[in-house]
Amino acid sequence: MNNALRQHAEQQFEEELNALKEVDNRPRPANWQLSPWGVCTYLMGGKLDSGFEVSAKYIGNRRLMEIAVATLTTDRALLLYGVPGTAKSWVSEHLAAAISGNSALVIQGTAGTSEEAIRYGWNYAQLLAKGPSRAALVESPMMHAMENGKVARIEELTRIPSDVQDTLITILSEKHLPIPELNDEVQAQKGFNVIATANNRDRGVNELSSALKRRFNTVILPTPGSLEEEVTIVEKRVEELGRALELPFEPGTAKEIQRIVTIFRELRQGVTKDGREKLKMPTGTLSTAEAISVVNSGISLAVHFGDGQINARDLASGILGAVVKDPVQDAVAWREYLETVVKERDGWSDIYRACRELS
């Protein structure tokens, strides 16, 4: 039994991947575990000829996933772009799991990411003892992916300093990684490609150079198109995370998810769902991912400090923390929304009182 707090996608959905492999007789690119059709079916879900039901990992426009998968069959890298919380990392992980059977070849982009994290590093004890050699070289996830024909992932590409980003240009253009210290190189094997994620809303964003942009095919992942779609996404992820964290998904949770998603969508769009009243918009993104976090936090409070049934009091602090990022501007927007919308909405008196107490 795997007791990892968070399993890799290929571990968590191993049964589905194996079921797809058994029925997937379509042409597969070199070193791919599934055909492009199989990868897309794994992402979008569906019933196989064998009767096996594959769960949906991405709820949204199928064509976007087809474009993303088709890109990875070419020599172009894939850039998943969008505001925070649009499932960029989630899609990236599941693409790598379905294509390579390994989603762990990942480089996390930060302001401190160096060239060595993308290219390679050195074991300094070996380097001092024996000098530059292959034994002293420490492979990066990128180098490992190139050598083995796998998919490498780069999270938050635009948070990496611009001069470090451009390390990718040679890799993506020439499909090889020079090792000048050894007068050697690593050549990418068939099946190698790169999936990067990026957004333009976080502080500290470094724009991609035009030379690097040309090496990527960009797929923009939108926010969920409807309330029902977003509610479905939140319910699905809350159930999955609940199983991993041993937090039960009680019947009343669905009602609370509906209310949280409604609040987040109205504030995010600056208008009530009936379109009758304009609202001040907070500075935060109020993404689907934040809604999932608020619900999980509420379930934890209900289980450990309540009667096990989630209610408005369990959710109020999470909602407030997600909405009020700026203590001045966001607090004004939130108070106005609370008094003009939440207070007047039928059946929402409990959430109004709970939020009012904290505000």
Written description of the protein model:
The protein is of the alpha/beta class and 359 residues long. The chain folds into two domains: 9-220, Rossmann fold (3-Layer(aba) Sandwich); 227-358. 48% of the residues lie in helices and 12% in strands. It is built from 17 helices and eleven strands. The strands form four sheets. The chain has a five-stranded parallel beta sheet. A two-stranded antiparallel sheet has the order 1-2. Helix 3 runs antiparallel to helix 4. The longest helix is centred in the middle third of the chain and has 19 residues, at 227-245. The radius of gyration is 23 Å and the shape is globular. It starts with 8 loop residues before the first helix and ends with a helix. The mean pLDDT is 91.
CATH class of the largest domain: Alpha Beta
Percentage of residues in DSSP E strands: 5-15%
What is the residue-mean pLDDT, rounded to a whole number?
A: 91
Number of helices: 17
Topology pattern, helix = H, strand = E: HHHEEHEHEHEHEHEHHEEEHEHHHHHH
- Count all strands and give the number: 11
CATH architecture of the largest domain: 3-Layer(aba) Sandwich
Oligomeric state of shown chains: single chain
CATH homology-level superfamily of the largest domain? P-loop containing nucleotide triphosphate hydrolases
The rounded distance between the terminal residues' Cα atoms is 45 Å
Based on CA atoms alone, the radius of gyration comes out at: 23 Å
Main-sheet strand order equals: 4-7-10-3-11
- The helical percent reads 40-55%
Give the CATH topology of the largest domain. Rossmann fold
Helix/strand/pairing category: alpha/beta
Which term fits the overall shape? globular
Largest sheet: 5 strands, parallel
